């Protein structure tokens, strides 16, 4: 049997750049996306239609969307680009550009996940065994073959809320309930246009304002709510990096007990405490097959003080390959992109695997 495919959502151009203080030229952002498109990544979060007063760095997301629609970057397989929208105003802004290019998004970027490995044995050491014994036939690697090449790339939207009231207020100036209300018109308009919608739940494993013990049942009930509203995927986010292996395991157990399918989940780890890879292994053990990451370990959320970047995509790819699974990503090319963008930003390259790959 061929190795199983793990889907990676590269969030570097959005989560990775949004917190940079210096203004990053549009050309650099576009070059980053173009370089990432050549690494084998199939999903790239490219920008964010949020208020420029709140997050100035994302102000030129319209130009990025326009660029992607006009001149889709070259890639060996089709790429899906995702954009954050916080409210109806953000959706309007997005649609103005999207519709002016007559774009449509009808392809299935969220394939049916492979059957659960049934890891009842509970060993933390049988990850590669689980990964290798799973069929890849219905995995994400089938996306490319299901989709023909299109003249315009697939575009998807992401909405975002959080598991605590304080974080939701700080990040989006509303309560959790109000955030869900805001999503209703976004969801119905997106659905009417065949646009897929991913939903983030922030601070699922720790909150900068309410502390490390966030109620996993709150995360689960929000996830159920968002799926019922029509979300195509839930990205459960450890915004602060406070997640640990036992907390991750507990959260996944609670999500599962709430009836949430593993195939509906992605995990989004920030690496502030250096636990992102350990937590990823726990999630893989639980059958999660989609992970968010940022090249070079870029990133952070402006409304989560002290939080550092996402898990570096190079590190995650190295981990997944070491377990005998595949990502479709060329780690050498990716390592070069991580090093290049770190240099552009005057940042240290935060990816251990990236630096080691380049030093070989
Ligand atoms: P608000 O100030 O309450 O909004 O912000 P408002 O409706 O009162 O509008 C105020 C002004 O902003 C008005 O302009 C609106 O037109 C404008 P004015 O009349 O003053 O000139 N406005 C907009 N402009 C452009 N695009 C828009 C928009 N909306 C209003 N979409 C709002 C509410 C949600 C807009 C604001 O709080 C916001 O933009 N928040 C986004 C914060 C953000 O981007 N955070 C980072 C992304 S989430 C994240 O990083 C976490 C994640 O990675 C997962 C994880 O790790 O946890 C996804
Ligand atoms: Mg994030």
From TrEMBL:
A molecular-function term among this protein's GO annotations: metal ion binding
Keywords, ordered alphabetically: Lyase, Metal-binding
Domain Pyruvate carboxyltransferase: from-to ranges: 6-335
Top enzyme category: lyase
This protein's pathway: Metabolic intermediate metabolism; (S)-3-hydroxy-3-methylglutaryl-CoA degradation; acetoacetate from (S)-3-hydroxy-3-methylglutaryl-CoA: step 1/1
Catalytic activity reported: (3S)-3-hydroxy-3-methylglutaryl-CoA = acetoacetate + acetyl-CoA
Record InterPro entries: Aldolase_TIM (IPR013785), HMGL (IPR043594), PYR_CT (IPR000891)
EC number(s) given by UniProt: 4.1.3.4
PROSITE patterns per the UniProt record, alphabetical: PYR_CT (PS50991)
GO biological process, one term: ketone body biosynthetic process
Similarity comment: family membership: Belongs to the HMG-CoA lyase family.
Protein name: hydroxymethylglutaryl-CoA lyase
Species of provenance: Lepidopterella palustris CBS 459.81
């Amino acid at each position: 049997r061929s190795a199983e495919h793990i889907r990676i959502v590269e969030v570097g151009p959005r989560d990775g750049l949004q917190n940079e203080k210096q203004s990053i030229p549009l050309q650099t952002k576009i070059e980053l996306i173009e370089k990432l498109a050549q690494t084998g990544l199939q999903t790239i979060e490219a920008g964010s239609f949020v208020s420029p007063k709140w997050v100035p760095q994302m102000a030129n997301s319209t130009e990025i969307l326009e660029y992607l629609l006009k001149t889709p970057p070259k890639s060996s397989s089709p790429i899906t680009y995702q954009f954050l929208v916080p409210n109806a105003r953000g959706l309007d802004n997005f649609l103005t550009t999207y519709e002016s290019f007559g774009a449509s998004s009808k392809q299935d970027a969220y394939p049916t996940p492979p059957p659960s490995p049934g890891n009842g044995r509970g060993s933390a050491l049988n990850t590669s065994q689980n990964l290798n014994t799973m069929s890849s036939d219905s995995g994400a690697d089938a996306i490319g073959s299901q989709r023909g090449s299109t003249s315009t790339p697939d575009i998807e939207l992401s909405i975002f809320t959080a598991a605590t009231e304080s974080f939701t207020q700080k990040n989006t100036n509303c309560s959790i309930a109000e955030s869900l209300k805001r999503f209703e018109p976004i969801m119905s308009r997106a659905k009417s246009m065949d646009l897929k919608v991913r939903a983030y739940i922030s601070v699922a494993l720790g909150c900068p304002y309410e502390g490390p013990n966030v109620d996993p049942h709150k995360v689960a009930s929000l996830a159920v709510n968002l799926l019922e509203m029509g979300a195509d995927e839930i990205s459960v986010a450890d915004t602060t990096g406070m997640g640990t292996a036992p907390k991750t395991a507990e959260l996944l157990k609670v999500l599962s007990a709430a009836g949430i399918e593993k195939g509906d989940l992605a995990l989004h780890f920030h690496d502030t405490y250096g636990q992102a890879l350990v937590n990823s292994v726990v999630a893989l053990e639980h059958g999660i097959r989609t992970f968010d990451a940022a090249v070079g370990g870029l990133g952070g959320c402006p409304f989560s003080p002290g939080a550092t970047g996402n898990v570096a995509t190079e590190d995650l790819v190295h981990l997944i390959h070491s377990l005998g699974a595949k990502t479709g990503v060329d780690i050498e090319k990716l390592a070069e992109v991580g090093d290049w963008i770190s240099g552009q930003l005057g940042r240290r390259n935060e990816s251990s695997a990236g630096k080691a790959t380049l030093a070989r």
